[in-house]
């Protein structure tokens, strides 16, 4: 892991997402629908759908809601036809940003994203301007686990790497498609993760402190608050004054 600041940021982001739980169901339903449309309605053969459904269970989404979203994706139930869009740009201090959207109105979405960038000190860039700075990967974070036992179990389950930071936090890194099976195998072996997801991980951090960190947080919040935005990824590591 890239030090304690990465873990602090994961926790900080998690707390803010929990505060926005009202929007989580809507985003999960969109993701389940699109995943089912692209890869079929069987989570056993569709890693993206399996991940989305796992997130839905974690968020305590009712089973009927999940199944309805799958049915919309497979065409069994009529629903909106969502398009995937990705926008790239720069935030405070040149920090890289990638914004993933699912929308039924491209014109509205690009206008909203551009406005959020410009109003909050960022700049919407061109396709590919920052994508090379990110890597698509899964991660699972563990605290207080036996390092050797966890490493052996993780690598046997198909993990790509196991990293330990200076505070003893252990991060298991996976290929995106392997994340769900690695998580299940480790839980079966008695290792429960503190956190985990499939994400676009920045390869280099842009550390922002004080006022710059606050400004960057406002930009991220403005983007995440947009109805069509699913995920915001950034190279920024925000360090707030205590």
Structural class of the helices, strands and pairings?
A: alpha+beta
Cross-sheet strand order for the largest sheet: 3-1-2-9
Percentage beta strand:
15-25%
Radius of gyration over all CA atoms, rounded? 18 Å
Number of helices: 8
Essential attributes:
four-stranded antiparallel sheet; 10 strands; disordered N terminus
Quick gist of this model?
By secondary structure, the chain is of the alpha+beta class.
Write the layout of secondary structure elements.
Elements (H helix, E strand, L loop, with lengths): L3 H16 L1 H19 L7 H12 L4 H12 L8 E8 L5 E8 L2 H14 L3 E2 L9 E9 L4 H11 L3 E4 L5 E5 L4 H10 L6 E8 L3 E4 H15 L4 E6 L1 E4 L3
Parallel strand pairs: 8-10
Antiparallel strand pairs: 1-2, 1-3, 2-9, 4-6, 4-7, 5-6
Question: What features would you describe in this structure?
Answer:
The chain has 242 residues and is α+β, with helices and mostly antiparallel strands. Mean pLDDT is 89; it is low at 1-5. It contains 8 helices and 10 strands. The two termini are 23 Å apart. Helix 2 (21-39) runs antiparallel to helix 3 (47-58) and helix 6 crosses helix 7 (179-188). A hairpin with a 5-residue loop joins strand 5 and strand 6 (170-174).
């Amino acid at each position: 892991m890239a030090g304690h600041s990465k873990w602090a940021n994961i926790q900080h982001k998690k707390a803010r997402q929990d505060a926005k739980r009202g929007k989580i169901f809507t985003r999960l339903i969109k993701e389940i629908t699109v995943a089912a449309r692209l890869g079929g309605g069987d989570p056993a053969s569709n890693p993206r759908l399996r991940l989305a459904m796992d997130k839905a269970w974690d968020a305590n989404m009712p089973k009927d809601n999940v199944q309805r979203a799958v049915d919309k994706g497979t065409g069994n139930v009529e629903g909106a036809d969502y398009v995937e869009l990705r926008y790239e740009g720069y935030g405070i201090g040149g920090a890289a940003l990638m914004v993933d959207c699912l929308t039924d109105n491209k014109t509205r979405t690009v206008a909203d994203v551009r406005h959020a960038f410009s109003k909050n000190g960022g700049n919407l860039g061109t396709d590919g301007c920052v994508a090379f700075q990110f890597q698509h990967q899964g991660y699972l974070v563990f605290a207080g686990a036996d390092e050797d036992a966890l490493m052996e179990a993780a690598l046997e389950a198909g993990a790509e790497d196991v990293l330990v930071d200076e505070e003893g936090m252990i991060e298991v890194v996976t290929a995106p498609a392997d994340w769900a099976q690695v998580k299940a195998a480790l839980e079966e072996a008695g290792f429960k993760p503190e956190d985990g997801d499939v994400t676009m991980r920045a390869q280099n951090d842009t550390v922002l402190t004080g006022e710059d960190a606050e400004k960057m947080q406002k930009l991220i919040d403005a983007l995440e608050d947009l109805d069509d935005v699913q995920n915001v990824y950034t190279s920024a590591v925000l360090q707030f004054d205590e």
